[in-house]
């Protein structure tokens, strides 16, 4: 593949990902969750369904423990998460979604479905599933995190 082609292809993939993040965030915001940023959705994906420690959240987001702790403090103040005793480690605290956080996560799931409807209309359901399978084969494993 020629380097110009590779850059163009990479730009298309990055734009598609960014477009999905923007569409999901816009829809979630339109449904009343105006006090969140897209990064919070990446955090929620790690916290659902069973919670995580601040250290686990920091590793998931690829940020320092201090930055993750500050985000958790913010989300506690906004009512999306709470800290609980860790069931297996008396020294650790578990960060879990509140009902408000779970409701926001459900709104994000509906937003993702809505964001993909134009893709399905353009490509067809079968081709969209094939594209998803193709991308799953080449995408790196590990946590889904924002591009800082």
Features:
single chain; 148 residues; mainly alpha; Arc Repressor Mutant, subunit A; globular; WH_DNA-bd_sf; MarR/SlyA-like; WH-like_DNA-bd_sf; DNA-binding transcription factor activity; MarR family protein
H/E topology pattern = HHHHEEHH
CATH class, named Mainly Alpha
Sequence of strands across the biggest β-sheet = 1-2
Note the overall shape: globular
How many strand elements? Answer: 2
CATH topology assignment:
Arc Repressor Mutant, subunit A
Proportion of strand residues: 5-15%
Low-confidence stretches: none
- The CATH architecture name reads Orthogonal Bundle
Alpha-carbon Rg, integer: 17 Å
Q: How far apart are the termini?
A: 28 Å
Let me know the average pLDDT. 93
Instruction: Kindly state the percentage of residues in helix.
Output: 55-70%
The count of domains is 1
The total count of helices amounts to 6
Superfamily (CATH H level) name: Winged helix-like DNA-binding domain superfamily/Winged helix DNA-binding domain
Largest sheet descriptor: 2 strands, antiparallel
Instruction: Give the class from helix and strand content and strand pairing.
Output: mainly alpha
GO molecular function: DNA-binding transcription factor activity
GO biological process, one term: response to stress
Domain HTH marR-type: 2-140
InterPro entries: HTH_MarR-typ, MarR/SlyA-like, WH-like_DNA-bd_sf, WH_DNA-bd_sf
Task: Describe this entry's structure for a reader.
This protein has 6 helices and 2 strands. By secondary structure, it is mainly alpha-helical. A two-stranded antiparallel sheet has the order 1-2. Strand 1 (81-85) and strand 2 form a beta hairpin. The radius of gyration is 17 Å and the shape is globular. The model has no long low-confidence stretch (mean pLDDT 93).
